[in-house]
């Protein structure tokens, strides 16, 4: 519905375009609210013994929708009579409104034929304004319900989440640009950023940080899955005890699925070391499960480790941050020293280390944000703290990824350069390290000729009959790379690059003469030696470059106009 918009004529002007962007934001809010309403009302209708009226079900819809935006709810009907806060946000439920706001802001900037263009600031303001108008109406409706909203939480984090999603949509519509200095900035700043390839570095840092956060979340989800399999029986008993009918069990299952991303963040915090809190008096870490936990009956909470000191199985969770640090190192080196790149395109040690360190900072910041969103209070007293501590989790992610990612990136860079560039960079010079460059460098070293671009530094070729510096024993001989380390006396004289009188190693001395006679008789380009000079094998082969031969008419092949009998 947000993509299919009614057509507007050009005469309607800018005001109509702004109004339509406001409508986009309102429609996005309505779609998110409607999707939750359909799910809740379906469960309420299918329940054999509903405990509330349709109005109570609609109040539950508004509470869940506001909770999905990060708002804190107040539950009034408690056993003690004291209102209890509910601030644990199901992160999977948050994906729905965030995605809808993102799409609404992105599509508002898509140019349509016959419609005035909308500025980025105008699209952002109108989409966020339309969404927040619907949110204010929903909060007012649920004010006197069983799940009322805590007013300060409507501004932070609810409005911040909506504004962030809309800003991301505008940024996507603009082509995801990286920061660039304004036009009035000094020209030296523009030149410095262009020379340092700031955009490429920034993109590499963002991708590496995102990859590190993804690996942390994946490792945390894997830890939770293993723990659920290990504690399958307590998790099953908790699931059965929460509800006796199938409608209630479906609701518990859907709530557990919505909390799976939260559990993945908790698992990542556990693997990083700080762990998570199960109440104000209990902390779960790989080293120990200490204190008296306040555990409500829920299947995911049945998968927590056993109380007491940790074992080697618990300590194995530390492999999660190690994998995240290695991932940051790998993603950094992919751009710092890509395959088939020239030497001048490879980043220096300082640039590689700085990119990996900045990626570690980004990974720590992202992990801290997710840890803050994944936890929250579930009540008063013992349940006032539930989940990971965001600043401890972010600091641990920063330390782990920096200590592993920065040295790992430097080691991977050195290994990649040494693996592919040992011949081309160490022996020949600063030739481009490509597949063709390595082959050309190796051929230049084994044949005695210089690599392309190094003709001025090539060693002069010895004339026939003159002694070569390499043949006299000085320097590294060309056949050392070809596997011949002995037996040169039995194989005949050592060939010298440029000396056509010496046969190749292992070639019989009588064979070149017969071959030269046979080829010389059949080839029109054969050269006949003068009577006063000795016959040397292979001297019928041309020694000049091919382009010089074709440039001289007397050395060119027979043309089609010559007499075949001549």
Structural descriptors:
single chain; 566 residues; disordered C terminus; 3-stranded antiparallel sheet; mainly alpha; 5-stranded antiparallel sheet
Radius of gyration: 37 Å
Order of helices and strands: HHEEHHEHHHHHHEEEEHHHEHHHH
* Structural shape: flat
Largest sheet: 5 strands, antiparallel
Question: Could you explain the architecture of this structure?
Answer:
The structure is a single chain. The chain has helices at residues 13-46, 54-68, 91-108, 120-141, 152-173, 187-195, 198-230, 232-242, 246-258, 260-272, 312-315, 319-336, 349-374, 390-428, 435-447, 510-522, 546-551; strands spanning 73-75, 84-86, 147-149, 276-278, 282-284, 288-291, 308-309, 386-387. It contains 17 helices and eight strands. The longest helix has 39 residues, at 390-428. It is flat, with a radius of gyration of 37 Å. With 566 residues, the protein is mainly alpha-helical. It has a five-stranded antiparallel β-sheet.
């Amino acid at each position: 519905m947000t993509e299919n918009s009614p057509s507007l004529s050009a005469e309607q002007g800018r005001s109509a375009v702004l109004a339509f962007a406001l409508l986009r934001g309102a429609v996005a809010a309505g779609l998110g609210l409607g999707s939750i309403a359909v799910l809740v009302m379906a469960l309420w209708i299918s329940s054999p013994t509903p405990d509330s009226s349709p109005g109570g079900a609609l109040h539950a819809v508004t509470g869940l929708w506001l909770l999905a935006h990060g708002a804190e709810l107040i539950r009034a009907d408690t056993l003690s009579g004291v209102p209890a806060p509910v601030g644990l946000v199901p992160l999977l439920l948050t994906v729905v409104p965030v995605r809808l706001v993102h799409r609404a802001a992105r599509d508002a900037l898509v140019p349509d034929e016959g419609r005035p263009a909308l500025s980025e600031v105008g699209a952002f303001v109108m989409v966020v304004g339309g969404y927040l108008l619907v949110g204010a109406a929903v909060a007012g409706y649920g004010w006197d319900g069983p799940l009322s909203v805590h007013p300060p939480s409507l501004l932070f984090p609810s409005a911040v989440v909506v504004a962030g999603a809309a800003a991301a949509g505008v940024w996507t519509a603009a082509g995801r640009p990286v920061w660039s200095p304004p036009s009035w900035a000094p020209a030296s700043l523009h030149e410095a950023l262009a020379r340092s390839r700031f955009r490429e570095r920034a993109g590499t840092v963002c991708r590496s940080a995102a990859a590190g956060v993804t690996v942390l979340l994946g490792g945390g989800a894997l830890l939770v899955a293993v723990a659920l399999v290990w504690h399958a029986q307590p998790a099953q008993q908790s699931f059965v005890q929460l509800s006796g009918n199938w409608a209630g069990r479906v609701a518990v299952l859907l709530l557990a699925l919505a909390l799976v991303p939260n559990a993945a963040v908790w698992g990542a915090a556990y693997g990083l070391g700080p762990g998570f809190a199960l109440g104000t008096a209990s902390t779960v870490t790989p080293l120990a499960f200490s204190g008296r936990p306040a555990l409500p009956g829920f299947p995911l909470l049945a998968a927590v480790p056993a109380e007491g000191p940790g074992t080697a199985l618990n300590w194995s969770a530390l492999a999660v941050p190690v994998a995240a640090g290695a991932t940051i190192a790998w993603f950094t080196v992919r751009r710092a020293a890509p395959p088939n790149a020239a030497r001048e395109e490879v980043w220096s040690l300082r640039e590689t280390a700085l990119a990996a360190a900045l990626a570690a900072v980004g990974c720590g910041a992202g992990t801290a944000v997710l840890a803050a969103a994944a936890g929250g209070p579930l009540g008063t007293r013992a349940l006032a703290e539930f989940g990971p501590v965001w600043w401890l989790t972010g600091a641990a992610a920063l330390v782990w990824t920096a200590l592993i990612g920065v040295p790992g990136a430097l080691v991977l860079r050195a290994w990649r350069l040494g693996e592919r560039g040992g011949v081309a960079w160490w022996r020949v010079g600063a030739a481009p390290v490509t597949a063709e460059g390595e082959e050309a460098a190796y051929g230049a070293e084994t044949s005695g000729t210089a690599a392309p671009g190094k003709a001025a530094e090539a060693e002069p070729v010895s004339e026939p009959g003159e002694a070569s510096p390499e043949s006299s024993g000085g320097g590294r001989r060309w056949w050392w790379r070809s596997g011949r380390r002995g037996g040169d006396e039995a194989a005949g004289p050592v060939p010298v690059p440029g000396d056509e009188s010496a046969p190749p190693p292992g070639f019989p001395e009588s064979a070149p003469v017969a071959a030269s006679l046979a080829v010389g008789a059949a080839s029109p380009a054969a050269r006949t030696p003068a009577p006063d000079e000795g016959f040397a094998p292979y001297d019928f082969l041309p020694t000049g470059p091919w382009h010089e031969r074709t440039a001289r008419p007397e050395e060119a092949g027979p043309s089609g106009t010559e007499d075949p009998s001549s």
